[in-house]
């Protein structure tokens, strides 16, 4: 499952055919396994409330779009208890000396690391908080901040949640040398 903000008030979710079966969804015939499909939407709301700062009592409105290979794209709108559309994030008082980016796929994270290596960018802390990888950079690690930010925006998505929350709820994979770690051959 891949999730992205689109643009700032909706969530785009991509599910391939195997994930659809696991969640009991069938784009051609509708929902085929009610309990698993309900569990999917509960988990979707849980992930959105954690990673995108959506209130837990939000209501969902979902548009389904089927791809040619049988996969689907969901466009999810969130509404408050009064029916007003909610933004996916609000700016927090996040420290200006910190960059935190979320990566929806390992492929995007790896491609970013390879591009960063081409420019000799180093540092960063790699975190994993299901289902996302996060890269955290402090001011002291941002020697080429504009280049780093541009590359991060190309492959990842800036997040406005508190970095301490990600560190507390997720798992720290690598501290202060994430780009070198990701770019090294395995």
Automatic annotation (TrEMBL):
Query: By its UniProt entry, which InterPro entries does this protein fall under?
Result: MecA_C_sf (IPR038471), Neg-reg_MecA (IPR008681)
Pfam families xrefs:
MecA (PF05389)
Top-level taxon in the UniProt lineage: Bacteria
Enumerate the transmembrane spans.
Answer: none
**Similarity section:** Belongs to the MecA family.
> Partners and quaternary state?
Homodimer.
Record's protein name: Adapter protein MecA 1/2
